[in-house]
Amino acid sequence: MAGTKKELIDKNGVRLDGRKWNELRPIKLQVGIMKNADGSAYIEWGKNKIMAAVYGPKEVHPKHQVLPDRALLRCRYHMAPFSVDERKNPAPSRREIEISKVIREALVPAVIVEDYPRTAIEVWVEVLQSDGGSRVAGITAASLALADAGINMRDLVVGCSCGLIGEQVVSDLDDTEDKEGNGDMPVAIMPNLGLVSLLQVDGVYTRENFQKAFELAIEKGKQIYQMQREALTTRFFGGEAKTTEVEEVAE
Amino acid sequence: MSMMKKNYVVEAIRKAQLLQLLASGKRLDERALDQPRNLKIETGVIPKANGSARVTLGNTQVLAGVKIATGIPFPDTPDKGILMVNAEILPMSSPYAEAGPPSEDAIELARVTDRGIRESEMVDLTKLGLIPGKSVIAVFVDCNIMNVDGNLFDATSYAVVSALRTAKMKKYVIKDDKVEATDELIPVPVEKTPVSVTIARLGDRLVVDPSAEEEASMDMRITITTDDDGNICASQKGEASTISPEQVLRAADTSISVGKAIRAKILEATR
User: What is the predicted ipTM?
Assistant: First the structure.
């Protein structure tokens, strides 16, 4: 591709890791992996390794934060110091604070918070190893953890990040593509309701490319949703969690 | 970012009233749904800064100041200058703002503003390199939110763009491998004019440039930044609610068209 330093896509449209423009990295999902948490999930997505745990509904402390008509959903997205190339300071960065906020805002619409007034539901997302798309992977795991905790939900939430390499729209950016590419667009959807609960965009998109990337993210999200269903089925009806090979249809 | 006192009863009554008005296509302040509030831009208000702008959008007021110095480049971009945009919601800006460490809302505001400027490639950072790996020009834009009346995202973004467009910096020369500042003043290498447009959803209606009262009742907000060519270069959906794919695309088209008119105003004010 013209304009990109490392030739992230070759002449045949093959990306550095061998994927086509619309392929996903391998994804592995496991539900109910932690003893103490009310609900938990683990996701491996490319090189991402992320755990999500849910506690609650529980009493709200401090009490002035109580919401009289619904549950308070707390969310923390945190990266382990060893999750990235250079050690990350364990204190929450501004980036992590913002991501915690957008993850919370992506999950709340799916939780029937009105069913649990005056309580707190805590969602902890811990990135053990990070690759591109850790926030959408975190959301995908967190919504499984919420379901595992038996919390009433309208839908699952599933995310996928699409973006640009040069002027080519691609799905599911990895770390290198995120840093060297020309745009990143994380999207989270509630697949059964057909609604978007997270949308962030950076890069320079023509109106056409914007729509193409956005719609591709939704399409890929629906595909990952099938893996979420499978992981929940495995959790509650037995069997080993397995890596789902994604069948791809190239352009 | 409502910065309004949360009062459940008043909020519910006010929201019902707003939705009723919106059902007949009207807003509290009689604006059209896609009509931003009056925008006033004053530049050069802080002579000690390299560039500055006071932006008044309705009753929301933001002051942006640019300071330029030399700095050490980031290891992954040894030949590129540094651009940092930050925003602080002053405790004086609203009866509900507080002093102390920045809130989640303030951090989001600063980061979304920075992203819009950075991703549009408004400032050509390749023209701010001095000695590769050792010295570059660093441009800091700091924003003070002086008065809160909704839509801090857009007001802050307009203030940053206006301040950068009118900023002057010293011309630096390299003598014997050392950077020296000259007395000559040159403009910052500005290439584009990104314009942020924030749209709120109340019930099933999308309204441009929400006031604080509208923000207190909104379900969802989306900020979309576009550039001179009508490209989309940054976006952020906010609030704990959803948006339909159709509304996202509609919001994108609205941002492009409303952004065009606002860009003309910014260009006029910063000529």
Answer: 0.89
